[in-house]
Amino acid sequence: MGISTNRICLLTTTVANQIAAGEVIERPASVVKELLENALDAGANAISIEIGFGGLNQVKISDNGGGILADDLPLAVAAHATSKITKLTDLYAISSMGFRGEALASIASVSRLSIFSKPVGQAHAMMMQMDGEKMSLTPCARNQGTTIDVRDLFFNAPVRKKFLKTERSEYQAIEVVVKRFALSAPEVAISLKHNDKPMLTLPSALCEQSKLQRIKKILGSEFVDKAIYLDVERAGMRLQGWVSGQEYQRSQNDKQWIYINQRMVKDKLLNHALKQSYEGLLHPGRHPACVLYLTIAPDQVDVNVHPTKHEVRFQQPRLVHDLMTSQILQALAVGEDAREYSSQQMSTHWEIREEHVDATRRGRVFSGKSVPSDDILIRPAVHLLPEGEGSRYSSWLILNTRFAIIDMNNEPWLFDVESAQQQRLAAMLSQQTYPMLSRPLLVPVNVAIDKKHYSQIEQLLPLLIDLGIGCDFASESSLIVRTIPLILPATDIQSFLQGLTSVIPTRDNLLKHLVVCQSFDIRQLNHDEKMELMAHMSPQSGVRMDIATCRGLFDV
Ligand code: ADP
Ligand code: MG
């Protein structure tokens, strides 16, 4: 091939915006984030979100904010057009969510976009429809505020479209964005619909009580009941919010929500500080939960370092890191003291129902002094069900890592909780699309394999990739595992791989094998997880105990 000299030309606006869109607009949830932030910047106190088919067909967000003047509508979708800053130095005191003026331009370049808006003081509303680089403006009817309607996202960006997941997972990502946003702006009433079905309705929360109500609705009442509240001001910063104690541990780090000056962030420095504060406190592989609001002078933080503004740069990172760790550690220490005190005061449900429990048993089970045998662990567990399900009590008497006696409508039932967990996982797996998402291991794991199984296992590797398990042979007798399935963080990858050769290699069989190769310990379940599991326990899968049998069990 001969060498030729290529001419340089300017990209058209559309292509330039499409390239920019790649950075900001990754999936429907990114559209939702940008539009919500715009509505907040417009001063709205009510926002409604309508999603069609996971946002792939439609994202429509309406607000009652300040609106856009008819003359400015074409500018709203132009690149680098914003009403929020006029000069660079404005950035150092930014109080709005947006400032780059690129979100609407990016969205418009990869979708079919319409804007309906009636600003304060304009006689009627206007509608602007975009069709490629053409736009049309017509009068329409609407109350004060703005509706942005985004249809057919990525219809003209097939490569981007290929990376999208199923309707369900795209919707779930949207729901997370909406929930995270909802905790950043408690005063804004929010409603979310998916395919016309109401999914989330949050009234405006103006007092502490109703803010807590909103947090409960989003993160569950167990988190709120068990969380430790903190509110401190130091060195011109304020850190306020809730952190989970030792009792509330999650298998994923999906409930760690941190806000800086109302902006939702996933900042490495802050996440590191959070992780460090819990070091040694949680079981391996378990994560804390938190909702934390950091308020800091705008000139102390640069939000213009990341395309989606998730990461920020602090003027004094050390100071912020120290504030986080010292205050969380202190809150945790105080929280534990308080809990110890309250647990001494607390009586369990099993104790409350005196008529079923004689003195011997109560003494044995709850004094904590005489545990029947080393491998049988009995710990009273008292939990309130989340609100809305009434304030029924549900007690779990944990016998060992696998079995528990559970109070079902005031009767004690013995359940194999691990098998309920396996049923739950099987049900969850049956809804997955393939290839399943994978989670990279921080450090690849080496698994020894019998040499004679080398070729048999080698043929299975593509099937394993489908399940989110990425591995390859280091030698004929050693596999290096790099990823495990995202939704199965407790996978015992060694027993899974070593047991592979006894499985007839179909995807269904491998899934079944994967389900039984999960490490499990009832004691690591939190309340939400127990509640989810109870849906998989039926009279057929348990044994009803009479009180006499129960007593026998404890007399072992
Ligand atoms: P940015 O938010 O960075 O300014 P956007 O592209 O998101 O950029 O929006 C461009 C402009 O359109 C905003 O600066 C604002 O003036 C206007 N705008 C967008 N959405 C709304 C809305 N919901 N209500 C009022 N004005 C809006
Ligand atoms: Mg914006």
The DSSP helix count reads 18
Q: What is the SS-derived class?
A: alpha+beta
Please give the number of β-strands: 23
**In which order are the strands of the major sheet placed?**
5-4-3-6-2-1-7-8
The 3D shape can be described as globular
Helical residue percent?
A: 25-40%
- Specify the biggest β-sheet: 8 strands, mixed
The rounded distance between the terminal residues' Cα atoms is 85 Å
Mean pLDDT metric: 82
Bound molecules: adenosine-5'-diphosphate, magnesium ion
Radius of gyration: 27 Å
Give the low-pLDDT segments: 340-360, 362-393
Percent of sequence in beta strands: 15-25%
What does the model show?
- By secondary structure, the protein is of the alpha+beta class.
- Helix content is 34%, strand content 24%.
- It contains 18 helices and 23 strands.
- It has an 8-stranded mixed beta sheet with strand order 5-4-3-6-2-1-7-8, covered by helices on one side. Strands 9-10-13-11-12 form a 5-stranded mixed beta sheet, with helices on both faces.
- Strand 9 and strand 10 form a beta hairpin.
- Helix 9 runs parallel beside helix 10 (317-345) and helix 13 packs antiparallel against helix 16 (507-516).
- The radius of gyration is 27 Å and the shape is globular.
- The N and C termini lie far apart (85 Å).
- Mean pLDDT is 82; it is low at 340-360 and 362-393.
- Residues 34, 37-38, 98, 103 line the site of magnesium ion.
